[in-house]
Amino acid sequence: MLRPGRSGFGLDGVRWPTSEHYFQAQKFKGTRHADLIRRTRTPLRAAELGRDSSEPPRRDRERGKDDVMRRVVAAKFRAHDDVRDILLSTGDEEIVEDTTTDHYWGRGRTGNGKNMLGRILMRTRDRSRAELAEAPDGDGRRPRR
Fold first, then answer.
1. CA 35, CA 7: separation in Å to the nearest integer?
2. Which of 16, 32, 84, 122 could bridge 22 with an S-S bond, Cβ 3.0-4.6 Å?
3. Which residues on neighbouring strands pair with residue 11, listed in sequence order?
4. In this model, does residue 3 exceed pLDDT 60?
5. Alpha helix locations (H) across the chain?
């Protein structure tokens, strides 16, 4: 199990403690609130601040949320070989965000939600597998950047 804080990464020229911090901050990109979210101590607090109804989010946040999630997931798995290896170890299994409260990112209470996070993880797994197969060092491991 990976602990929050162990999985930090850089994206958009900034260091992010977790993918939750990045995802929530993008709702308020370019504002002080986004920076507050980035600097908060825990992913739970980042999520709370990202859902703060007293702060108006970007108007285009709904339209761009899949792209934001794709970018953050890809950056996290590029930055951490150990996390990427866990993803790759799932083989070709379906990945499901098992939550009863989210019908968009997960499968939701009814079990037939969109599971967009699971879909993004599976696409990221396929891309990572392809990148490793093309790695110039021939051992299936990409050189660290």
1. 19
2. 16
3. 14
4. no
5. 19-25, 32-39, 43-50, 61-79, 81-88, 116-133
pTM value is 0.85
Check if the beta carbon of residue 114 is closer than 8 Å to that of residue 103. Answer: yes
Is the confidence at residue 4, as pLDDT, over 90? no
φ and ψ of 10, to 5 deg: -105, 140
Read off the tokens for 98.
């098992």
What is the reported pLDDT for 135?
83
Query: How confident is residue 136, by pLDDT bands cut at 50, 70 and 90?
Result: confident
d(CA 93, CA 122): 9
Burial 45-67 (b: 16+ CB within 10 A, else e): ebbebbeeeebebeeeeeeebee
Whose CA is closest to 75, among 21, 11, 2?
Answer: 11
Question: From CA 33, how far away is CA 97, in angstroms rounded?
Answer: 28
